[in-house]
Amino acid sequence: MRTAVGHRDSGSDAAHAGAAEFVPDSHDLDDLSSAARVCRGCDLYRDADQTVFGAGRPGSTIMFVGEQPGDQEDRAGEPFVGPAGRLFDRALEAAGIDRETTYVTNAVKHFKFTRAAGRKRRIHEKPNRGEVVACRPWLLAELDAVSPSIVVCLGATAAQALLGTGFRLTKHRGERFDLGADGEVGPDHAETVVATVHPSSILRGPAERREQAFDAFVADLRVVRDLARAT
């Protein structure tokens, strides 16, 4: 198992403190979810419909972390219920993982989007590093509350939120990482971290390669399944 390759970002404390003001001193997921609804730790709340907190049970062995809610998630108030979520469910089933036994969340809790001129459709826009760091207190609180054995980062944004900006998904996809003792995210939060692609990347990819990309994603999830069974 490798040790985390990331590092704490200079200047992250100020952004972190903004969201931290709203995080209650509680390990109860219901308390955390209620408090997150009024979070003003960054400006993304201004345009999003609502906060989209994680879903699942405390004590789940596996915790999946995506990037941010999408358009349908923002409207529903639940994570991974849009097209990428449906593909995620298919992949979990193919890999032999019951979603009901996992916890699913995002590194950023509000939908960031843009609109083409004259159009109503909301287009996903990647959160910047400051927004990811600002929202990290919620992710850390979820890690404390759920206490998973395995964290699966879906995509580079989620991986870098936990493992630092030096992490490269293309280089370390599917590898096991020990979070290590440095920085704010340490071994008390999880024993193992695995990073793979976000299911939305499969949908955005060339149609002729989607089946191959889906199979590779399922293969990564089977690694996670085997780790969970060994826990």
Automatic annotation (TrEMBL):
<keyword id="KW-0227">DNA damage</keyword>
<keyword id="KW-0408">Iron</keyword>
<comment type="similarity">
    <text>Belongs to the uracil-DNA glycosylase (UDG) superfamily. Type 4 (UDGa) family.</text>
</comment>
<dbReference type="InterPro" id="IPR005273">
    <property type="entry name" value="Ura-DNA_glyco_family4"/>
</dbReference>
<keyword id="KW-0411">Iron-sulfur</keyword>
<dbReference type="InterPro" id="IPR051536">
    <property type="entry name" value="UDG_Type-4/5"/>
</dbReference>
<keyword id="KW-0004">4Fe-4S</keyword>
<protein>
    <recommendedName>
        <fullName>Type-4 uracil-DNA glycosylase</fullName>
    </recommendedName>
</protein>
<feature type="domain" description="Uracil-DNA glycosylase-like">
    <location>
        <begin position="53"/>
        <end position="222"/>
    </location>
</feature>
<dbReference type="GO" id="GO:0046872">
    <property type="term" value="F:metal ion binding"/>
</dbReference>
<dbReference type="GO" id="GO:0097506">
    <property type="term" value="F:deaminated base DNA N-glycosylase activity"/>
</dbReference>
<dbReference type="InterPro" id="IPR005122">
    <property type="entry name" value="Uracil-DNA_glycosylase-like"/>
</dbReference>
<dbReference type="InterPro" id="IPR036895">
    <property type="entry name" value="Uracil-DNA_glycosylase-like_sf"/>
</dbReference>
<keyword id="KW-0378">Hydrolase</keyword>
<dbReference type="GO" id="GO:0006281">
    <property type="term" value="P:DNA repair"/>
</dbReference>
<dbReference type="Pfam" id="PF03167">
    <property type="entry name" value="UDG"/>
</dbReference>
<keyword id="KW-0479">Metal-binding</keyword>
<dbReference type="GO" id="GO:0051539">
    <property type="term" value="F:4 iron, 4 sulfur cluster binding"/>
</dbReference>
<keyword id="KW-0234">DNA repair</keyword>
